[in-house]
Specification:
7 strands; mainly alpha; about 600 residues; three-stranded antiparallel beta sheet; flat; two-stranded parallel ribbon
Length: about 600
């Protein structure tokens, strides 16, 4: 209890001290003596009295605005003092010196001095920027004019190497003056050179005139007697005097001489062309292509010298003219024959291409074959050539066949079928022809294989089935070409033991379906007793093959139970060999015919 009382007393003392600290003007450690006559007042009453006194004091004291202004001034003073403390001693000393000057005596003087200082700073900054810009420009020019190799463009003598800027400027002024002097001298030299060129041209013109006059004088100084004798021998009339003036005569004479020189040049060119033509003619006559030509003209051309050939050219041309007409007519006739052959070959080639298209059309399979239903078993693709290209290519084929006919040891065949095949091959160039067939398999997928890959992709039974289908297609095509396209029967195909290679049920069904669609009768012969394969055929004829070991002959015998049904041969009649003595007819059910 005593401890709690002590704690309460301490708390009360702390609270009283805090309240006393809030009272302005009372020291913390003040000890007020207690007067004996002081009345005892309660603490709440004293507190209320203190608040009333404080309010009354504030009413009669300094205003709140002044206190706020005082607080701001004190804050500004503190900030200024802090900023002043951050400055260095050198700056503070300089500021103190400026304040001691007349410009720092009062506020207006200090403001005017600050304005002048700011203007000076701006001017210095402007000058600094201009100097920096000029420095950059000068550096760029220095880099641009710097030598590519070495430190200088040229080596100066020791006496012209500047020691400082003033010496460099002095040398530069001297060099500029010397450059101006040399420029004037160069201009004067060019002017003198132009005058010399003009004088040179005038001298050349004078020389040409002098040479013209000299040539005229040489013509005038010739012996007139020799000229007259030569003219009389040639039967020419003596020259007449020129009626015009001397200048006109000179001009006409100059033109005549120029014409004479031109004619001489033309004559020289003509003689050169004549010699070249004579050489060509001699080489042509000596060519091995014309060894079989036994004509006098060829012998003369080979024996005569080249200079004597022009004298006989007219006579040879007259002699060769009839032969030239005959050869020209023969060549025209050959060209017409060639065009006729090419046209005929073009018709055959177009017919062959149409046959290829018909083969693809006729190989269409019947319905009921899965994915193969309605498909074309044979697909032939090629690019149709235009008429101009076709005629040109066929002409090349005919020319090749004609050229091989005159060559020795030529192994190129020239029969009709070979020419047609080469014509078709040339017509389908450069891409050629692409032939694909359907690959027979158990599920009859519509998979096409190029004919060149059949041996690598197809099995033996598939190869046989494809061969049967191709034969049936060719048989139908032959029947169509013969005008029997509406006649369903396209022939009969005998097969020697095909079941040995193709005994699969789907292959036999496919063979019979294709043959039935194309109108081909299939006859299978086999010695195998494969009931599964034989069950696919609606008609099976059993035969027995006996061998006559003594005669080495083989006969086909009929079963004994069938002999009574065969027609009997009259013993008195002549024996007939190779006669069919038994037939059997098989009629399809009504459902199959439908």
């Amino acid at each position: 209890a005593a401890q709690r009382a002590a704690d309460d007393a301490r708390r009360t003392a702390r609270a009283l001290r805090a309240e006393r600290a809030e009272i302005a003007g009372v020291p913390d450690d003040a000890q007020l003596p207690a007067a004996p006559d002081t009345p005892h007042v309660s603490l709440p009453a004293l507190r209320e009295a203190y608040r009333s006194a404080s309010q009354l004091y504030e009413k009669v004291g300094v205003g709140a605005d002044l206190r706020a202004e005082q607080a701001r001034a004190e804050s500004d003073e503190s900030a200024a003092r802090a900023e002043l403390d951050r400055l260095s001693n050198k700056v503070r000393n300089r500021a103190a010196q400026l304040l001691e000057d007349p410009d720092g005596a009062d506020g207006p003087s200090r403001q005017a001095a600050a304005a002048r200082a700011e203007a000076l700073v701006q001017m210095l900054e402007t000058r600094s920027a201009a100097a920096s810009e000029q420095l950059g420009r000068l550096r760029g020019e220095a880099e641009r004019h710097a030598p590519e190799e070495g430190e200088a463009h040229t080596e100066l003598p020791p006496e012209q190497v500047p020691a400082d800027v003033e010496a460099a400027q002095r040398l530069l002024r001297a060099a500029t003056a010397e450059l101006a002097t040399r420029t004037d001298e160069l201009a004067a030299a060019r002017e003198a050179h132009g005058e010399l060129l003009h004088a040179h041209r005038a001298a050349e013109e004078a020389t040409a005139g002098f040479e013209e006059t000299a040539a005229l004088l040489r013509d005038l100084l010739r012996d007139p007697q020799d000229a007259r004798d030569t003219d009389e021998e040639r039967g020419a009339q003596p020259p007449e005097q020129y009626p015009g003036s001397l200048d006109e005569a000179r001009r006409v004479a100059a033109e005549a001489r120029r014409s004479l020189r031109g004619c001489a040049a033309d004559l020289s060119a003509a003689e050169s062309a004549l010699r070249e033509t004579s050489d060509i003619l001699v080489r042509h006559a000596n060519s091995t292509r014309y060894e079989q030509v036994r004509t006098p003209a060829r012998a003369q051309i080979r024996e005569l010298p080249a200079a004597a050939l022009p004298e006989h050219a007219a006579k040879w041309a007259e002699a060769f003219a009839p032969r030239l007409r005959v050869l020209t007519d023969e060549l025209d006739q050959l060209e017409r024959n060639r065009d006729s052959i090419v046209d005929r070959l073009r018709g055959l080639v177009e017919s062959s291409l149409a046959t290829l298209r018909s083969a693809q059309r006729l190989s269409r399979l019947p319905e009921g074959l899965g994915e193969w239903s309605g498909q074309e078993f044979l697909r032939v693709r090629f690019e149709e050539p235009d008429q101009t290209t076709l005629v040109e290519r066929l002409g090349e084929v005919i020319d090749e066949a004609t050229s091989t006919a005159v060559r020795k040891n030529a192994d190129l065949r020239r029969d009709g079928m070979s020419l047609l095949l080469r014509g078709v091959h040339a017509a389908l160039q450069p891409r050629g022809v692409s032939v694909e067939i359907l690959k027979p398999d158990a599920v009859l997928r519509a998979e096409r294989v190029p004919v060149g890959q059949m041996g690598d992709v197809f099995s033996g039974g598939q190869l046989l089935t494809a061969a049967i289908a191709l034969y049936c297609t060719m048989a139908a095509l032959r029947s169509n070409d013969r005008g029997r396209d509406k006649h369903r029967h396209a022939g009969t195909l005998f097969l020697d033991n095909p079941i040995g290679r193709a005994n699969a049920t789907y292959l036999l069904e496919l063979q019979r379906a294709v043959a039935d669609a194309l109108g081909v009768q299939l006859l299978y012969t086999t010695g195998l007793f494969d009931t599964t394969a034989l069950a696919e055929f609606p008609l099976v004829i059993r035969l027995r093959n006996d061998a006559d070991l003594r005669a080495g002959l083989k006969y086909i015998s009929v079963e004994e139970h069938l002999r009574p049904g065969l027609p009997q041969q009259d013993p008195q009649e002549e024996t007939v060999h190779g006669e069919i003595t038994a037939t059997r007819m098989f009629r399809k059910p009504q459902s199959d015919e439908e």
